[in-house]
Amino acid sequence: MKMKIWGSCSTSTSLIVLLLLMGCLHLESIKPGLDEDLDVGCAEKDRKALLEFKEGLNDFSGWLSSWEGKDCCKWRGVGCNKKTGHVVKLDLKNPSCYNVEQESVGQLSELVMLDLSVNSWEGVISEVHFLNLTRLEEIYISLKSPMKSLVFHSRNVWIPPFSLKSIMVDNVQIGTSFPPWLQTQKELVEIELHNVGISDTVPDGFWKLPDIKYLDLSNNQIRGRLPNWMNFSKAEVIYLSFNFFSGPLPMNIGEIMPRLKVLDLYGNNLNDSIPYSIGILKDLVSLFLSNNQFIGELPGFWKGLQNLQILAIANNNFTGNIPGSMGFLLSLELLLLNNNNLDGELPLSLQNCTNLDTIDLGEYRFCGNVPNWI
Length: 374
Ligand SMILES: *[C@@H]1O[C@H](CO)[C@@H](O)[C@H](O)[C@H]1NC(C)=O
Ligand SMILES: *[C@@H]1O[C@H](CO)[C@@H](O)[C@H](O)[C@H]1NC(C)=O
Ligand SMILES: *[C@@H]1O[C@H](CO)[C@@H](O)[C@H](O)[C@H]1NC(C)=O
Ligand SMILES: *[C@@H]1O[C@H](CO)[C@@H](O)[C@H](O)[C@H]1NC(C)=O
Ligand SMILES: *[C@@H]1O[C@H](CO)[C@@H](O)[C@H](O)[C@H]1NC(C)=O
Hints:
Elements: H1 12-22, H2 25-29, H3 44-55, E1 78-80, E2 87-91, E3 113-119, E4 123-126, E5 138-143, E6 150-153, E7 166-170, E8 190-194, E9 214-216, E10 223-224, E11 237-239, E12 244-248, H4 253-256, E13 262-264, E14 269-272, E15 286-288, E16 293-297, E17 310-312, E18 317-320, E19 334-336, E20 341-344, E21 358-360, E22 365-366
Parallel strand pairs: 2-3, 3-5, 4-6, 5-7, 7-8, 8-9, 9-11, 10-12, 11-13, 12-14, 13-15, 14-16, 15-17, 16-18, 17-19, 18-20, 19-21, 20-22
Antiparallel strand pairs: 1-2
Residues 210, 231, 233 line the site of one 2-acetamido-2-deoxy-beta-D-glucopyranose.
């Protein structure tokens, strides 16, 4: 698992909630964690490949200064299999190195995890770099800023030698369509393709990945509908904000993704009314539907959403009253309703939401006075 650490799209609140949700599991997982007694030291072939890799980098921050001496397993960011001494994890997060093209990393044939996030890489990575990485399960690549200086190239017919569980790409241009090779990856648990320049529709197979827990496709120009057969039965976190998704939400959304904790659809062209099945998402913590074209009255299903902390439905065209059953949202902290066509009396039951510290009613047309308790 990797927490989301880079500039989120949507809101800092979604980021905070996610940090809380995901914890720091990733940071734990990259500790070399070697047992001294069993330690066979680093495989010579891998040590050479790492030194070659270092040669090609501009390590002006000195981050790689620990990369000397015999036992590469003790070098910063390197993790080994303790029995074989082969490098299985390479965490190069943050060192601000340049030019990734020569990547002797491709010789680390036992590599399971490669983390090149929050860097200033430049150059062109191609499928050739990944030829030998048959065991790769996790790959993280991101740039500090969207400079478009790192490009990933692959042929349309490329079938990778690995089967990934996690891929997180941020601020790196991967082309305007969903890479065909990604569709060969059926074991994916986490996908983040944030601000990568995709302006395609989502391929059908992508919606059916059986193990997906975390999906972030935010800040692209992705078009099309969310199908009612998107079978993400294990999904916990879905970020699709800042795209061009359109049409209604699937009526059965609560049934096909019953474990959802975060649903972020902020800033799309979604329309029609809120499906009732959202009311059965008992683990839901954050619901962002703001800045779409939703219509209709707000549903009365809030009693089922005891964990909901953030409800953002601003900038739509909801009509009618604020339902009294919102008083059942005992965990609610942030409620954004502004810029809709809501009216009527503000329900007294909202007093029951004792954790509520921010409420934005914006254009709300009150019948009567603003209650004292607000
Ligand atoms: C893959 O492994 C072969 C044999 O060890 C090696 O010659 C080749 O350079 C490796 N490819 C890459 C991209 O590192
Ligand atoms: C969804 O996927 C699960 C697991 O692969 C499968 O058991 C189930 O039948 C699928 N449901 C639908 C509606 O396709
Ligand atoms: C929703 O948008 C689609 C186009 O994306 C349109 O065909 C449909 O009529 C709209 N539905 C409503 C209820 O506005
Ligand atoms: C919002 O809904 C109202 C009532 O249905 C309608 O009159 C109005 O045109 C809608 N506004 C927008 C911006 O869609
Ligand atoms: C709010 O609290 C009052 C008093 O504790 C209770 O009678 C009422 O049922 C609650 N309403 C809701 C919607 O939870």
